[in-house]
Amino acid sequence: MKKKMILGLSSIALLTFVPSSVLHGVAYTNAAEYSSTLGDTSDTLETKEVTASPGSTSTELQSLLDYNKDGKYKLTVHIPAGSYTLIKELRIYSNTTISADTDAKLYKTHQKGPILSNDMSQDRGGYTTSENITIIGGVWDSSPIADKNKGTESFRFIHATNITVKDAEISNVPVNSHLITFAGIKNGLIENCKLHGYDGESPKEAIQLDIVHDNVVVPSNQSKDIKYDDLPCDGILIRGNEIYDYPRAMGSHTSIKGVFHKNITITKNTLHDLTEAGIKAYNYENLEISSNYIYNVGVGILAYTYISNESNHYLNALSTTVPEPLPDDYNIKITNNTIRDINKSTSSAITSWGDGIRTIGTYTRPLNGVTIANNTIEATKRYGIFLEKTPGSIISDNTISNTADSGIYLFRECDNSTIKNNTLEKLGNTGGNAGGIGLYSTSNSLITDNTITSPAKNGIYLSKQSNTCNITGNMIYSSGGNAIATYDKSDNTTIYSNFISGYSVNGIYAYDTNSADISQNKIYGNTGSNVKDGIHIQGVTDLDNAFSLKDNYISSTRRYGIYIDANNSLLETNTITNAMKYSIYLDSNSSGSKLFDNKIDNSIWQN
Description:
With 607 residues, the protein is mainly beta. Helix content is 3%, strand content 45%. It starts with 19 loop residues before the first helix and ends with a strand.
């Protein structure tokens, strides 16, 4: 049976007691969410609770935390309502909970060290230097030093397991500071916190996930005690927080070669009024970003393995580190988020593109295994979804509207991707170049069952040798250019069973390509002044082209139903009605072409 200890602390503390079962349920919520392979041993410890006097000094608060310096207790330190001036860093030990009143206001007045950090005096590396630490409640405010030219985090935890920060307000740090840093943390929870306030332009994260690499990447007052071992974070849940008035809400801007943060879940947060990124995930594996509300930021969600100035941010591992191989599948899932009002930053210190969701890989480190599904994205200054060197991606069931550039764009080496069941509307300004779905140098991909309305230019377009793609079952309305287009030797495209209504140039357009299979599409044009043809093919000159047009239905074109300027084309069993000029027109480079059983205004034309 555990004993309850009663201590006399004169004016420093007033003691209260809560049954240990209640304490355990509050203090170790994250231990229930994530099963630590190391286990929670705090139940074998004697329970102790102490309460600070209102207005206690840093020294008095530290004296309460020091009851657990030798790790004897499962300690709870209560901080009641009141104002507290902190002139030095507080150290917290394993199996300790700080429970602060919502009206407990703790003001940081020192520039050296964070408000609170775990004790590193016995650090040997790994996840076990500290265990089972919980911070609940309180207002942790660094405004007294916010305008200084240097400062540090509010909370910093290194080499630890089962760390919880919840129901706290943390705010107002100087330039180059974070509000919470987790470095080498296993099983961490940040929940229902309000995080805000940053003085400076240099982009930093409110919540930073770091790798314990050196005292530049992870600086600390305790750096002389830290065993730097390239330890990443593993098993972090960031849930239900509000983060605003900061450059970035959360993530990482530094990574180590062959080291990956793993099993990160970011869900149900509200992220707004950020000069750069809502979420910035650098070399994360097994990442879930779900059900967040993100608005008035520079880029909503950024997941990446490469950044242009990576010599300063992608560092060689320590000599003692055994690097992991690059993942075949990063397993990144970005789902059910609402993202709106995405702006381009005007600051030279910040890279902010104006995309709702963006991913970036590189030739040597492609970002494989990304799923982007069921997100709502609106009012972006650039793309809704922009992927670069992200092969095998799945983009499905997203709703995207009012983008300045294309709704979905896959740029270079996003091969073997699937874009399906997305709804896109009002993409770009009238007369602009924005399209619905675009592929650039991306092959073997499927674009299917999407609905695209009112793109400024092309509904779906392939360029720069985006070969062997399948465009099927899409519905495209009122495109400002071509409804479907292939350019720049984007060969062997299958364009099948799409519904096209109202386009400003051509229904289906192929230019400088060598081949396509175009069949069973329904194309309803109009008689606007710039409208040309239902299907317009210009193959590569002097090559044996291979265009096959079968079973297409084309109605109401201002010029030709089908225009062909490509050798050896096959036109078979197409139906064309109400073409204002010729139903089928073969131009001078169409030698060897064959026409069979095409229906023209309910008659048969057979060559």
